[in-house]
Fold AB hydrolase-1 domain-containing protein.
Amino acid sequence: TQSNTSVMNHFILVHGLCHGAWCWYKVVAALQAAGHRVTAVDLAASGAHPARIDEVHSFEEYSQPLLDVVAAAPEGDGERLILVGHSHGGLSLALAMERFPGKVAAAVFAAAGMPCVGKHMGVTTEEFMRRTSSEGLMDCKMLPINNNHGAGVAMIMGPNFLARKNYQQSSPEDLALAKMLVRPGNLFMEDPVMKDASLLTDTNYGSVKKVYVVAKADGSSTEEMQRWMVLLSPGTEAEEIAGADHAIMSSRPRELCDALVKITNARQV
């Protein structure tokens, strides 16, 4: 039961690698129609954000737009922040949860990288790469970039990779949109933040309610890989969505919206 009808849910949606706020357009409309406040964030050098990928020098800088939105949210009653991360966006969620645990009512990882206390953040990306052969990356291209950390690479998702690994259950229109709008993305694997096993703490990150939404038809981060991450963080609740490909917000937007609303309702006592 909802004891305080004035409490507003504020969903903050965080896209995955190479994507932007644009990929949430169906979920934004559905959540708003259900009466919720929604902010879809463009991380640095993503979506409509003005920076270029080689101008973003750290994972923290990449995640800054999310950190800014959470920092600006009012403390106390009136608004419950629910962070929703997709794919690589889950790692930016973890950074925000560690930094502002008192502000986040719940964090939802939708087919996302979900790090755990006691291991470095890059462990989920390393495991994904371990399970994905170079053939599995298909026509993705690696683009040499230079930033303050020196020479590195950004990834550009190829059209076949998008079609076969991300959007295979989605509409042709959503696939066409993604092909037009994806930008180069940086996994920041060499970033010190990714290698710091003491970064995420029980007191902060571990104290925030976590829910994992498993995309059962994910051709990229398999159901097995998703459940492996759930097991790494005991106490994480799991929801599953049948027929959802990796682009869960495109292939099953209504089901994802229903799951998000159910999660928030369960949190209101």
In short: Residues 78 and 207 are 21 Å apart (CA to CA). Strands lie at 8-14, 37-41, 79-86, 104-110, 141-147, 150-156, 210-215, 237-241.
